[in-house]
Input
Amino acid sequence: MWEYSEKVQEHFFNPRNAGPLNEANAVGEVGSISCGDALRLMLKVDPESERIVAASFQTFGCGSAIASSSALTEMIKGMTLDEALKVSNQDIADYLDGLPPEKMHCSVMGREALEAAVANYRGEEWKDDHEEGALICKCFAIDAVMIEDTVRANNLSTVQDVINYTKAGGGCAACHEGIEEILAKVLAERGESFKPAQATSPVAASGKLSTLERVKRIQQVIEQVRPMLQRDRGDIELVDIDGKTIYVSMKGACAGCQMEALTLQGVQQQMMDALGEFVKLVPVRATTPAGACVTPGA
Amino acid sequence: MNPIYLDNNATTRVDPSVVEAMLPYFTEQFGNPSSLHSFGNKVGMALKKARQQVQALIGAEHDSEIIFTSCGTESDSTAILSALKAQPERRELITTTVEHPAILSLCQHLEKEGYTVHYLKVDGKGRLDLDEYAKLLSDKVAIVSVMWANNETGTLFPVEKMAEMANAKGVMFHTDAVQAVGKVPIDLKSSKIDMLSISGHKLHAPKGIGVLYLRRGARFRPLLRGGHQERGRRAGTENSASIVALGAACEQAMSHMAYENTEVRALRDRLEQGILAQVPNAFVTGDPDNRLPNTCNIAFEYIEGEAILLLLNKQGIAASSGSACTSGSLEPSHVMRAMGIPYTAAHGTVRFSLSRYNTAEEIDRVIAAVPPIVAQLRKLSPYWGENGPIENPEQAFAPVYA
Output
């Protein structure tokens, strides 16, 4: 059974704001019956202030889908539409004290229903731009479609590339067979064949790096991973280097994220590959202004 | 409130007498059965007895046809890979669309290695078309692997007949019988089945022990090579405590066979009728007239299975579901899809699988618990109106991505 937080269970067993909302003037419907979850979000918006005075939902789906819907309605009640649109799927997950990686899509569905409802209110057409595939990387909840699209768009050819661009495979490494299969397929489309990278990447042997070169490489790795973390509303910063210990600060959504340890592990592996030596990545706490990015209004 | 376990097709509780039988083999009877001295010798005798107990349950002609393995999956892989190794000129396999992943994943992998796999389709009740099967049998086929009973619906396949058809064409036949052994009578010596897989934990033995039945004379290539254990057909020091346990469990299953097919079956029918009488828009999946006595699989339309399970679990009732969420993928159960069960129902399937430990009181508690749970979830569902499913649910609720 899934490891649901107390809060997820509580919202599932006692969902808030469930059922039809007759006076709704903003309705968003997302999901599909084939995938096993679908959500209708109904809002009553005050036309003067654009403030959400009532929100309710109807959901066909699993425990976390129902809990995410319930959480979303609680979070956005009283917000203006513009404020509500700032609520991300990560905020919904945070509100519920986290969701298992396989279930993050439930919070995504909530966020999309919100966009669809606002678009509906404003008379715009909302287009879903995301398609889901089979879950490949369970550490970071990355699906096959996302990996395949990224490989294609960026001409990637190694598992390490995929880790760098999507994070998929950067944790426990159990999904590398699946990633290799996707690479082989896409490479075959462009007339190439997949060649597994050497076990150890051809980097300078340990001890050969000058201190300056070493620091540069460490900075390079940090810069490489930052865009991916920023995409998830997180960030990482280099704090200090003390011999084999590298101190970093995790920021935004990364700080205290339930997958922080895995993220660090992935970055640490990339450091070791880049430096050709063993290093340890240690997170330092509380260097960010408290709550800078962590769930505004939650 | 005592918990109620209705998930016996997933795994079973180890019978107390089975635990008692196996315990000495962790302590005083710790010897290696291959050793010459008395420590090993006694264990060797115990394994021999266990082999005969398994033999009796499945009606094998010889006890040497029983090979102990670590699990049903190992038995399945050993059987299929052996047939391919022993007959390298044969590059085709026949199986069904509704097999357990232990077979399906292996077959999909073999396709990547260049083998051709024929997947027999099933109809709306999960039944095979034997004419389609007959046409596929040829000297290009290395092995047919068809489950005896389906784990999700309990539907039984006519494996004895299919084995005869394969045998007449000179094709080897394997059956994954992990759900059937101990629940339906099996007599292998009067069949043409070449190989059969058993999993201990499905019949009140511990996890981590399985059996591959291998008909004497059937060509075989081991999966694990090494020592001479299991006559060189499965190397690796024997899991003696669990083997003894499996033997004891097989003896228990033999003596409870009639009970399983009368009392357990009656409880299952009572549960099924009790639920269907109260819950609208619910139906039994699979072939109700030809299935395991302990299994019932009910589709509750317009709601999702995991949510049902969570609410059942809150009341101490354990069952399982074929919904996407519980399968860990985006698609509902492949068995439900193969039978053409619509998505509105496939995601809401719940499997109740009983055992000889269940009581009438338990069944009545479940019959009382299910209807309010279904009603509660339907209240939340966008596909359900005041008094029933909304008309044309697919149109009335048309989400942006479908």
Summary: The domain at 4-8+256-382 of chain B is CATH 3.90.1150.10 (Aspartate Aminotransferase, domain 1). Chain B touches chain A through 35 residues (CB under 8 Å). The mean pLDDT of chain B is 94.
